[in-house]
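Box S2. Input/output pair 1.
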Amino acid sequence: MNCWDYKACGRAKGGAKVAEMGVCPAYPDHAHDCWKIAGTFCGGTVQGTGAQKMNSCLTCDWYLKVNTMTGTNKELLKG
C-alpha cells in the first residue's frame, strides 16, 4: 500500500487535489517514507520542512502503520 492510497489525500498523479495543490512530492518514489519529504499533504494542509512537520509525523497513523508493517523503527526525517 502507498501513503496516498492509505491517506486518500488526492495528490497522487491523476488525483482529485492535483489541479489545486499539485502532485505530492512523495509520489511515486517515497510512498513508505513520506515523512522524509517536505511538502506532503497531511492533516488537510501542505506540510513544510522535516523540522516543521516532525510532531505531526510522529503521531501519524501512516507512519505508525509502516513501522508496524516493516517490524522496524524507521528513523523519522533522516535520508
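Box S3. Input/output pair 2.
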Amino acid sequence: MQSKNNSDNLLQKQITGNLQKDIALLQTLFTNDDTLRIRRICNTANPALNCALLFFDGMINMQVVNEFIVKPISQSPYRADKDHIEELLKTKIIQTEQVETTAEIQKISQAMLYGDSILFVDGLKNAFIISSKGWEKRSVMEPPSEQVFRGPREGFTEAIMTNTSLLRRKVQNPDLKFKFLNLGTETHTKVCISYIENLAKPELIDEVEDRLRAIQLDSILDSNYIQEMIKDAPHSPFKTIYNSERPDTVAANLLEGRVAIMVDGSPSALTMPAFFIENFQASDDYYINYYFSTISRILRLIGFFITISAPAIYLALVTYHQEVIPTQLLLSLAAARQGVPFPTIIEELLLLIAFEVLREAGTRMPNNIGQALSIVGAVVLGQAAVEARFVSAPIVIIISITGITSLMIPRMQGFIVFTRLSLIILASIIGIYGYLFGMSLILLHLVSIRSFGYYYVGGFASFTAERQKDIVVRAPWWKMRNRPDYLAQVRQRQPERSRP
C-alpha cells in the first residue's frame, strides 16, 4: 500500500528541467524494473543538446530510435539557444511521425508504457513524447470462430491501431469517427468508440460513452470485461451486446447506424444495440445468393427450436403423454427401454453432460486432436452405453440431434445449455404443460429486454414488408433500399430505381 501511495504521488509531479533529477524521478517511479533503458545523447556542435532518451526494452522499434532519434540529435548541425531548442527538436531534428511535449509525469509514464520513447533535455521543463512503438503483434488472419465460405478473410488482432486501420479500409468515409478512452485504474487500457457520424444517433453515442466512463474496474484485459459492465439485463442469458472478430461484420453494423467498441489487447469488437435475430445471421449470408442465405437462416431457426426443445418434448411424451405417440412407435420405444435402470430424465441428463464434456474437451485440445476426440468419444461412448443398457437407443438419437443442431448457432451456446436444462426440468414435473410454460417465460423475457434503449426483438416488433427484408428472409440487395428505420438517422441506402 505504501508503494502504491508513493507511485500516485510521483505521478502527480512535473519534470523540473534538471536532467539528472528528471532521470532519477523516472527511475524511482519504475524501481526494480529491469526493462527500463536510459540512453544519454550529446551533440558536440551544440552543447545545449544534452539529452537522455528513456524507453522500455521490447516495447519500441530500435531502428526508429537509432535512425530517427539518436542519430539526428547526435549529428545535428543546427545551433540554437535554450529558448529555441524545443522548437528546433520538434521541427528539424527529430524525424519520427509524431512528437509532442508535456511536463506531466503521468502522461510521460503512460506514453512509455504504451511503447513511446521519452526525451529529456537538460534545461527544458517539457519532455518530448516520441512515437516509436514496435512491440510484437499477431498478423491479420481469418478468425477461426467466424470462418466463411466466401468473403473477406481478414480478422481483428490484439493491436487496436491495426483494428482501426482495418475498419478504415472498409469504410473510407470522413464521417467514420474514432474516440479513445483509457479504462482500468491499474491497466489504463486504451478503448476506442467507433461510429459513422451522420448515421449513428447522437443519443446512442452519448449513452455508450457515459456507460464506459462509469466503469470503475482496476483492469480491462478483454472486451468481455466491458460487455458485462455496460450490457442491459446483466442477468439475462441473452447477449444484448454483439461481438465479432470480423472487420466486415463490424463495418456493416456501423453502416446501419450502430456503435462499435474496440479494446486494445482484444481481437473481439463489440457492437450495440444488439438484436435477437443477429444470432441467426452470418456474415457470408451477404456474400452468397439470397435464396441460399434465406434457406440457411430458416435452417438455423429450426435448429435452434430443435436443440432447446427436443429433449424436453421427448421426455414429456414418453413420461406423461404416451397416448399421443403412435402405437408402433410406442412399442418400439418400450422395447428399447427394456433393461435400462434409469428413468428417462436421468438418461437425458447423463448424455447431455457427457456431450458437453466432450465438446469442452474438444475445444480446449489442439484442433486435430480435438476433432478426433469428439468423434471417437461420441461414437464409442454412445455405442457402449446402449450395449451396456445404461441408456436406451432413442435417447442417444435425441441427444445426438440436439447436439448437432446446437452447433449451428455457436453464438448462443450458453443460452442453449441453460434453456435446454430448464425446459427438461419443467417437462419432467408437469409434462408438455411445463414445456409450454417455459417457452412462454422465454418469450416474455425476450420482449421485455432492451439493448441501449432498443427493443431486443427488433424487426419482429412490427411485421411490415420493409422491416422483414433482412430479418428471417434475406432480400436481394436491389430490394434493400433503406436502412432499419429504428436505427440509422439516414434511412436511404440506395436511390429508388429498378434493378439494372
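Caption for Box S3: Residues 2-130 form one domain. Residues 282 and 313 are 29 Å apart (CA to CA).
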